[in-house]
């Protein structure tokens, strides 16, 4: 009898221990689960006020409304596509920690966050701002991408460093040449030589300052001060005329071909500057007694102005950088010919403000072709209808300069 009671008590005690152990395991598991995982059973999802949801959807930057248990109540398209939100939760631990800190303090929080979403992937630069929406722990999260600002700041620092170097070089040269002139006061030939060098350096300095001003104006909000019909033939003739002396000095012939009647809307002076820069570059990088071709033709809804040479060409590794400010493929040759390193950058920006683009084909030893593509101006016919293609396919004119 006593033995039966003993076994009964032992079984009851074992059952109790088992129940307690099971309860403990369940508590540990529940405590380790993210609140979002229990949404279906224990968390009541509060609806987002419609005005707030609409405002979030209208924002271009990532915006999310986060509930009291860190669950996503609403996220706009930018939050979903940028990786700020992953399903029903905030993707980054540092961002969710900011949200929780803001909830605890019941005050807005802001933090710059740098992270990589994938190993060896690009570094993301976010600024996360969060604050309470109501008294129930609901928070709003706004994320802005700092990368464009950082790139602009880096470009500004690079520009300041480059322009400082480019300005110091001719200024220093003028100072040295002035001392040389003073020292050669009794040598008329020496004075003339050093004075000529001073004129070359001051001309380089003047060109650099002018191009910096032009580039700044092109990067402003309204760079096109005059927009009027411009004849392509006039642009080509004026640009080539500017290069007459350089072409004569280097014994380079320039062939001009232009389809009759081509016009674009824009600033004639700016367009001439762009083509002139391309022509001068073609001459500089061509061998003596070479030939440079300048042409314009209609191609669909675009006017293509091409400047071709059979000079030294450009290495493939340099093609992606030649339109950068102050980038030179051949620094010595550029400076010897008065180059500032801003010419192709100006061409790129002039094309952009006219709604066009510029590209380049080049191979080492085979030459280069720069093509400026601009929207064609289509003049209305007397009947109010646009002219057909036949009005822009007139004969070709050719000059040898």
From TrEMBL:
Its EC number is 2.7.13.3. SUPFAM superfamilies: ATPase domain of HSP90 chaperone/DNA topoisomerase II/histidine kinase, Homodimeric domain of signal transducing histidine kinase. It comes from the Bacteria. Residues 375-401 are annotated as: Disordered. Coiled coil: none annotated. InterPro entries: BphY/WalK/GraS-like (IPR050351), HATPase_C_sf (IPR036890), HATPase_dom (IPR003594), His_kinase_dom (IPR005467), HisK_dim/P_dom (IPR003661), HisK_dim/P_sf (IPR036097), Sig_transdc_His_kin-like_C (IPR004358). Residues 162-378 form the Histidine kinase domain. The keyword Transmembrane applies. GO terms for molecular function: calcium ion binding; phosphoprotein phosphatase activity; phosphorelay sensor kinase activity. It holds the Pfam family HATPase_c. It is found in: Cell membrane. Keywords: Kinase, Membrane, Phosphoprotein, Transferase, Transmembrane, Transmembrane helix, Two-component regulatory system. One of its GO terms (biological process) is cellular response to phosphate starvation. GO terms for cellular component: plasma membrane. Gene3D superfamilies: 1.10.287.130, Histidine kinase-like ATPase, C-terminal domain (3.30.565.10). The chain crosses the membrane at residues 6-26. Its cofactor is a divalent metal cation. This is Sensor-like histidine kinase SenX3. It comes from Acidipropionibacterium virtanenii. The lineage of its organism: Bacteria, Bacillati, Actinomycetota, Actinomycetes, Propionibacteriales.
């Amino acid at each position: 009898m006593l033995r039966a009671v003993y076994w009964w008590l032992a079984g009851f005690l074992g059952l109790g221990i088992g129940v307690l152990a099971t309860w403990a395991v369940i508590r540990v598991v529940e405590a380790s689960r993210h609140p979002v995982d229990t949404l279906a059973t224990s968390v009541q999802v509060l609806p987002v006020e419609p005005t707030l949801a609409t405002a979030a959807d209208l924002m271009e930057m990532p915006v999310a409304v986060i509930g009291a248990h860190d669950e996503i109540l609403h996220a706009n398209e930018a939050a979903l596509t940028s990786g700020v939100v992953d399903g029903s939760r905030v993707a980054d631990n540092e961002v969710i920690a900011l949200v929780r800190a803001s909830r605890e303090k019941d005050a807005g929080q802001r933090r710059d966050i740098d992270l990589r979403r994938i190993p060896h992937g690009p570094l993301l630069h976010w600024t996360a701002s969060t604050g309470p929406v109501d008294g129930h722990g609901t928070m709003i999260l706004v994320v802005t991408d700092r990368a464009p600002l950082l790139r602009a700041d880096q470009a500004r620092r690079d520009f300041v460093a480059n322009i400082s170097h480019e300005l110091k070089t001719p200024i220093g040269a003028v100072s040295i040449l002035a001392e040389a002139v003073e020292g050669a006061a009794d040598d008329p030939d020496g004075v003339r030589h050093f004075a000529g060098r001073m004129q070359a350096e001051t001309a380089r300095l003047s060109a650099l300052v002018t191009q910096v001003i032009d580039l700044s104006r092109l990067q402003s909000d309204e760079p096109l001060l005059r927009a009027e019909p411009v004849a392509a033939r006039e642009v080509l003739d004026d640009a080539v005329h500017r290069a007459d002396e350089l072409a004569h000095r280097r014994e380079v012939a320039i062939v001009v071909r232009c389809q009759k009647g081509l016009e674009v809307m824009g600033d004639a002076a700016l367009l001439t500057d762009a083509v002139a820069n391309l022509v001068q570059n073609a001459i500089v990088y061509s061998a003596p007694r070479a030939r440079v071709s300048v042409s314009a033709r209609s191609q669909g809804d675009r006017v293509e102005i091409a400047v071709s040479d059979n000079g030294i060409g450009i290495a493939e590794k340099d093609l992606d950088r030649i339109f950068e400010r102050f980038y030179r493929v051949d620094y010595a040759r550029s400076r010897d010919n008065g180059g500032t390193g801003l010419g192709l950058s100006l061409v790129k920006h002039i094309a952009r403000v006219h709604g066009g683009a510029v590209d380049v084909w080049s191979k080492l030893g085979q030459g280069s072709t720069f093509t400026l593509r601009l929207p064609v101006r289509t003049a209305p016919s007397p009947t109010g209808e646009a002219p057909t293609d036949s009005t822009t396919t007139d004969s070709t004119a050719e000059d040898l300069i």
